[in-house]
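fyi for ur records
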Amino acid sequence: MKRVGILGGGIAGLSAAWSLEKARRSGQPIEYRLFEAGERLGGVIASETADGCVVEAGPDSFLTEKAAAAQLCRELGLGDELIGSNDAERKTYIVVGKRLIPLPDGLMFMVPTKLAPTAMTRLFSLRTKLQMAREFLFPPAPATNDESVAEMTRRHFGQETVDRLVSPLLAGVYGGDADQLSVRAVLGRMADMEKKHRSLTRGMLAARRQRGTAKGPAPPLFTTLRGGMSQMVDAIASQLPPEWVHLGTEVHAIDRMESGGHGTPRGVSGWTVETPFGREVFDALILALPAWGSASLLRPIDHPLAEALSGVAYSSSITVTLGYEIGRLRNLPPGFGFLVPATEKRALLACTFVHTKFAGRVPEGKGLLRCFLGGARNDELLDESHARLTAIVLKELEQILGLKAPPSFVRIYRWRQAMAQYGVGHLERIQLVRDRIAELPGIALAGNAYRGIGVPDCIRTGQEAAEWALRAVDAAAVGAGAR
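which gave:
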């Protein structure tokens, strides 16, 4: 019987465990153990119900175009619980002063694809609009090296586009800084467009024409679960043998175990996992931890690998969710919410109008505002009290929305060092990690530090790690048999 240890009970580790469980049920001679330092599974995915409203502590949805999450939900019998975003109402605003300015129609991230809405918007100055026109006619030369998203944007569309558009968009998604995030790691498709078309506008128009040939209605941009993202976590947990899931169990150390020890067949190496409850032996380990957590465990084994992993930066975030009677939100503009540029010098990064974004998650007559703080520039807010954070949010909502009514409830969640930041040179760093990990038979990595930070990306890395672990233990068994 081959054994696999999974370190970390977030969605990446759970996806790995579910893949191994399916293999076990199909008859493969394998067992596994999942170790989670906290007292619950799911990592940053956590949902609760307040006043009949589904409140998300972490991610509230996932990109529909990344299929891994929806496929997993269907495997788990949650297909009927999947709901798409209400894209007919999708409109996003940018805060400029005390005004909410809608993103112009046809804007694809930072790239304008429709002339009239771009020309008429109040979001950009005449100078920026002229630079956008020049980008189409006289595009800059493609970058020869990796650069920040801000640098690419400046070359094509100017600093105002960085300040009013790109920085708030990336702060909302990554909690990150556009001057630090890598174009190739974060916006790889745009880097490819630049190489092929020079003009990002030309490239985006060509991509849109190609998508226009697809048949059928466009899928919703976002997908979620009716009862909260935790439904996915709970569904996986219910399928795992409870005696194989160890909550409140911090892994203190891992170590290589050479052939012949602790019951491992001669000629086959294994790994030990040390916890407060003793030592266990495994044929393979999946480290589904933040990069800094994996680095700590791997430093005594491979110092260069640990240094590479330690170089992946992380940002923290805070969500403040406020419930209201819908009548108190009657002056709210239509749409999904707003983003706040750093140049506005506010604590808020963004606010989502949850009751508009998704149908069925808020009872009739209720409204839900989900506000985001923290990020790469405002870590100090993590140490503020709940009362202080609530006061900050209410003051800024009053200034931006004119909202003076008190909420019926408030929920605050803090996530320290939770969001991986793909800085300039990230792809080269991860290639080094892959090269070093290849020299450690029996170790796989999963999570948001490598090739995507979203829920589907984490699921995919967990599944890939499980597939790798199954191949690794099969190869070890064949090698032992040959000897």
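The longest helix spans residues 455-482. thats all i got for now
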